[in-house]
Amino acid sequence: MNPFTPAQRRCSRLLLCACALWLAGCGGVQSSLAPAGREAERIARLFWWMTGAGVIVWVSVIALAVYLVRLQADPRDRRRNSVLVIGGGVVVPTVVLTVLLVFGLAMLPPAVARAPAGSREVHVIGEQWWWRVRYLRQDGSAVDLANELRLPVGEPVQLRLESDNVIHSFWVPSLAGKMDMIPGRTTYLTLRPTATGIFRGTCAEYCGTAHALMGFYVEVMEQDAFRRWLDHQAAPAVPVAGPVAAEGQELFLATGCNACHTVRGTTADGVIGPDLTHAGGRLSVGAGILRSGPDAFRRWIATTEQLKPGVHMPAFGMLPDAELRALAAYVEGLK
Ligand code: CUA
User: Fold this and answer.
1) Which atom of ligand 1 is the closest one to the Cα of 168?
2) Which of 54, 144, 154, 238 could pair covalently with 275 via S-S, beta carbons 3.0-4.6 A apart?
3) How far is ligand 1, taken at its centre, from the CA of residue 164, in Å?
4) 194 CA to centre of ligand 1 in angstroms
5) Is 20 part of any domain?
6) Domain's final residue, options 215, 234, 253
């Protein structure tokens, strides 16, 4: 016979569902609890130790309360009072909190330490609402990109974070903690990826209308693949392939896209919006809004305002569909 009432069974099912939903947040491409970088591993360790200690304290306090209730002792009972003082009031909390404080403080210094001298440096500049990315190459030259970072696995990378508008915060939960980007100041964050894969980053500081839609992807690659990728990014845009893309390129220049966007190797040299030289090879469109795919650029160009309210780029939905498709084919072809 089932010892539980129907109400209790319903309640336990609800609790199980809540736990499953809660645990589902522990994985994925944007989770501090699925670390793929040294700083994130430290943060995850701190989280689990703090959670474990919290559970121990909670269970101890409940056990103590149950014990005292069952004891039914007089408030002047010395045994009751010494249990309260030692267990619940002074000794145990002091010991537990001191141990956790020392443990937490010991983790702090490496989390904010700079990468060793000579490490690769990447500038990330927070815009409203996208990310300007500049790689410095070993020969001193710079490569401007946008809304995506690629990193070599096992190598420390020094990020130099800036903003010239409002405060943003750079955060890739799987790789490291968050770091504010403050107008007029330069902040630093070191990433030390330990595993290859694709991870998602986001802006972690409210920065205006489209704050929640200011995302990006980070791909951690094998070191050789990373170097080949960076060499390709430094090169000018690939030649236009096919008549549709060629028509798209003409439209790109005729409709004024070039006033805001650069495509290296062409006359498009605007700097207000993201550099599009290799936009077709990126993982997302519109700063993490749409996963790249055959229709992503057309949707983005036609309905920017619906996809990202507040965005500074005007929508070009008034263009005929054939022209939208040509424009999209051109940008998508910029691999
Ligand atoms: Cu940028 Cu929030």
Assistant:
1) 1
2) 144
3) 12
4) 27
5) no
6) 234
Determine the pLDDT at residue 61.
81
Whole-number pLDDT of residue 1: 54
Look at residue 18 and tell me if it is in a domain: no
Q: What is the CATH number of the domain that holds 170?
A: 2.60.40.420
Residues 127 and 224 in one domain: yes
> Measured between alpha carbons, how far is 324 from 255 in angstroms, rounded to an integer?
11
Tell me how far the alpha carbon of residue 308 lies from the centroid of ligand 1, in angstroms: 13
Give the position of tokens 């107008």.
183
Three-state DSSP class for residue 9: helix
Atom 1 of ligand 1, residue of closest alpha carbon: 168
pLDDT at position 154, please? 95
pLDDT at 176: 94
Q: Which domain holds residue 173?
A: 120-234
pLDDT at position 110, please?
58
Question: Tokens 């022209």 — which residue?
Answer: 323
Q: 85 and 152: one domain? A: no
CA of 126 to the centre of ligand 1 (A): 8
Give the pLDDT confidence of 223-234 residue by residue, as tens digits. Answer: 999 999 999 999
Q: Which amino acid is at 38?
A: R
Side chain identity, residue 282: R
Strand order, beta sheet including 120-127: 142-146, 130-136, 120-127, 157-163, 187-191
Task: Point out the residues of the chain with pLDDT beneath 70.
Answer: 1-3, 19-26, 73, 75, 87-88, 109-113
**Paired strand residues for 100:** none
Residues touching ligand 1 (Cβ under 6 Å) are 126, 129, 168, 203, 205-207, 211, 214
141 and 218 housed in the same domain: yes
Tell me: do 70 and 135 sit in the same domain. no
